C-alpha cells in the first residue's frame, strides 16, 4: 500500500500533542506507538512473524483456548465471512494463532500480514485492533485511518479480549475487514458479535479448567464479561472468571484463597447474587429433566441427597 503523507503527518502531530492523548484513547495509543515503542507511521516493511517452531510452541501453550474456541470461530465466520471479513484468534502477546478467511480473500489478508504467526502487538504494529485491544484489555474498533501505520489504513478491525480461568488475559478475538466500503455502523454490529463470541470462549475455557466443579452463572445484567463461579462439592469456591472477581470483590488474578461460598457472598441480607444464581441453576436443571431430581443432580455434578438439601435451603419445592 502506498504511504499517505497526510495520515503520517496527522498521526505524528496528534501524538505529539499532550492534551490530545489526555482527551482521546486513540491519540494515547498513537503516542505510545510513537514515543514508547519508537515506531514510524510511514514504515513500510511487512508485519513481523514468529518462526514456525515458535508458532507451534505458542499454539501448544494456548491449546485449551484454541480447542474450545474452534466452533465459536466457525460460527462467527459463518456470519461475517460473506462480507469479506476474516476471523482471527491471537495469544496474549498478539501473535495470530488461528484464522478463518474465504479463499477469495486469502491473498488480501496475507498481503496485510493477517496470517498465523504474525505479530500484531502494539509494540510491533502500533495502534491496531489486536494490539490495542491487548494493551488496554478492552474491546476496541480501529477503523481504517485510525491505525498507526499508514500501510494498515485499508482495513477495519473489531476486537475483544479473552480472559483465562484465573482472570488473566490469554488472547484476543479479531474480525478484520477487506471491504473498502465497509461503514462504521456495520463495524459496530460486527463488534457486538465479536464481544459476545469472546465472552462465550471465555466461559467455555473456564468450564474446561474446572471439569469437576459445579459452575454457577451469576446474573450478568448489562455486564459484557462472563460471570462464572466454580464451586466444589463442599461449596468451596475454587475459581471465578474476571467478571465474577470484579463483581464480588475477589482478587483480580491468580488462584483464589480457599473459602466457603457463604463466607465470600454472605447471607445476612437475604438471597445474594450468588444464591440467586445457584437457585436459577438448580431450577434450570430440574426443568431440563422434567423434575427428575436424580437426573438433575447428575447434570449439576452433585449427589441426589446433596441436591435435595440445596433445594430445601433455596426454598425450591
The biggest sheet amounts to: 5 strands, antiparallel
Tell me the CATH topology of the largest domain. Beta-Lactamase
Radius of gyration (Å)? 22 Å
Query: What's the number of structural domains?
Result: 2
- Note the gap between the termini: 67 Å
Give the overall shape, derived from the CA principal axes: elongated
Structural class estimated from helices and strands: alpha+beta
Query: What is the string of SSEs from the N terminus onward?
Result: HHHHHEEHHHEEEHEEEHEHHHH
Number of strands: 9
Percent helix range = 40-55%
Assign the CATH class of the largest domain: Alpha Beta
Shape-level CATH architecture of the largest domain: 2-Layer Sandwich
Number of H/I helices: 14
Query: What order do the strands of the largest sheet run in, or round the barrel if closed?
Result: 2-1-5-4-3
Q: What is the strand content? A: 15-25%
CATH superfamily of the largest domain: GAF domain
Unreliable runs: none
Average residue pLDDT:
90
